[in-house]
Specification:
Layout (H helix, E strand, L loop, with lengths): L4 H11 L2 H4 L3 E7 L4 E8 L2 E8 H8 L5 H14 L9
Antiparallel strand pairs: 1-2, 2-3
Length: 89
């Protein structure tokens, strides 16, 4: 299965609605050298990047799971959003 950037962004956003709630910007690019997707989360100058292997990205798009990414999304939200002023809604 081939993964499309827009499709991957939509699926991740669906799994993690907190991203939109807190105004976190997310981008995806495919790194040919690593054969993996790079997901970048950004909020007010804070940035976190994580890689998703092609197989994991396919599972995510299929709605099976996004566990690896979920750990990084949750960490970003915890560090930059919860309990702080950065992500006031």
């Amino acid at each position: 299965m081939s993964v499309d950037s827009k499709e991957l962004l939509a699926k991740i956003s669906g799994f993690y609605p907190e991203l939109e709630k807190y105004g976190v910007t997310m981008t995806t690019t495919f790194d040919e050298a690593k054969k993996a997707w790079v997901v970048t989360l950004t909020k007010d100058g804070n940035e976190q990047k994580t890689h998703i292997e092609q197989e994991d990205a396919e599972k995510c798009v299929q709605g099976v799971e996004c566990i690896h990414l979920g750990v990084h999304v949750a960490d970003f939200i915890r560090v930059y959003c919860q309990g702080g002023e950065a992500c006031k809604v």
